[in-house]
Amino acid sequence: MIELSGVHKSFGTLEVLRDVTLTVPAGSVTVILGPSGSGKSTLLRCINHLEKVDRGRVRVDGELIGYRRAGDKLYELSERHILKQRAKIGFVFQTFNLFPHMTALQNVAEAGGGIELLERVGLAHKAHSYPRQLSGGQQQRVAIARALGRQPKLILFDEPTSALDPELVGEVLDVMRDLARAGTTMIVVTHEIGFAREVADTIVFLDEGRLLEQGPPTEVLDNPQHERTRAFLSKVLV
Amino acid sequence: MSLLSRTTASPPGVTEPPSDNLVVVPARHPWRWIAAAAVLIVVAQFLHGLITNPGWDWATFFGYFFEKSVMDALLITLELTFAGAVLGFAGGIVLAPMRMSKNPVLAWVSWTFIWVFRSVPLIVQLLFWANLGYLYDRLQIGVPFGPGFLHFETSTLVSAFGAALLGLALHEAAYAAEIVRAGILSVDSRQLEAAAALGIPRLRQFRRILLPQAMRAILPNAANELVNLLKSTSVVYVLAIGELFYQVQVIYGRNGRVVPLLLVATVWYVILTAALSVLQHYVERRYSRGYVR
């Protein structure tokens, strides 16, 4: 289970996240929607401490991320401990970020995985190809296999299909659908409303760093309560 | 041009062949031939002078090219180059991350080191190290500002060869640090972010993710620096070390055949640089894995 409580984050004077509180049960899929600049990516990056939160807490399975509490003080963890915590949280980037000097299999192996993970994303036959020899969709599937390498409790997806040609989006969403069916805990930032409607247990709408609305897809997508959500959806659902 | 003139000259639809089997005539480049001929004449004249000018004294050149003292000197040149490169790049690999460190003391020390050793001409530095004994006649190892355990006479510790090596290594380290830093900067920062997100330990990130990718940018510059170092070893002649350039000077000081002996050194430097270039080609190919389709 992932719990965010009162999370604040600023870059200089710009407040990117304001008092975000969110609970994601284990085995569920949460999709974060929102206009660009609304803090979606930052929220994901706070969950695995790629960004430090200014205020508030992030807990994964009850464990405080990035800090250790002793009495009434929070001590920032050493980098070594943070790296250990991150190993339990998979992260899939918009730009894949595979290691270009390693084959698909070496990329997965760098995270402790093996050929069976490439099989799971349907790319065992590309095990010895370098990222540059793969299509965008294939690269993202390798990146997902790599994220699975540490057997994470949770996988965060940061716009995983936004950098792909339209005809390659489907293969990546298929892999994510399979993961969701297998009971993987996932938090997904995406603009793929169809995927959100089909796969998400909860949809969260973020605007200017505030969590405006959350609920099952039927509620948030079909009967949004907030004016901003309605405006956003009317632009996206054409 | 023939196509164009024919099309405009002939009345439409009379002599034109069917448009699907027109012959393509490549453009001609007469000026390329003229320029090539002019340059070849100059080159031929130069080669003719090289071969027929008795001043080159080819007999003396070949007499000394493989001569024992020249071979020994060549070995010293290679030793200085190899040791200077190994020590220099070892220093560079430490100094570059130091300069990029968040620790201001490390960054400042590295910056200052690079600044100083890039500023001082190699020849000046070499003379300084050779004369270290005037500054400190004894060196000791011990507690900083406290008592010492080991004492050395500076003149016995820092021989001429030691001074030369020290100078070359420090000089190289300053340049190597900047070459390594350029390589590190060339790697997409998202690579380290991906490694951090996977929880890969810091040292492993550097060794497995950062350095192999940085090598692609490091290698051409490092090869350049290595060639530079090979030639810079000739400067240590000021410390009377018997490397290649010093040795040919000794010989022409004896027999007065200056030009052919300078040519002996020149041709050896050219051959060694060619060998380094071949080595560079293979090492670069090794690190281009994953970058060519």
From TrEMBL, chain A:
Name the keywords, alphabetized. ATP-binding, Nucleotide-binding, Transport
| Keyword match Nucleotide-binding | yes
Molecular function in Gene Ontology? ATP binding
Residues in ABC transporter domain copies = 2-233
Q: Name one Pfam family in it.
A: ABC_tran
Q: What protein family is recorded?
A: Belongs to the ABC transporter superfamily.
Its recorded name reads Amino acid ABC transporter ATP-binding protein
What organism does this protein naturally occur in? Paractinoplanes lichenicola
Automatic annotation (TrEMBL), chain B:
Principal subcellular localisation of the protein = membrane
PROSITE patterns reported for this sequence: ABC_TM1
Is Transport there in the keyword field?
yes
Q: Where are the transmembrane segments?
A: 33-53, 73-96, 108-129, 149-171, 234-252, 258-279
Q: Where is the ABC transmembrane type-1 domain?
A: 74-280
Family statement: Belongs to the binding-protein-dependent transport system permease family.
- Identification of the protein by name: Amino acid ABC transporter permease
> Whose protein is this, by species?
Paractinoplanes lichenicola
Query: Lineage of the source organism?
Result: Bacteria, Bacillati, Actinomycetota, Actinomycetes, Micromonosporales
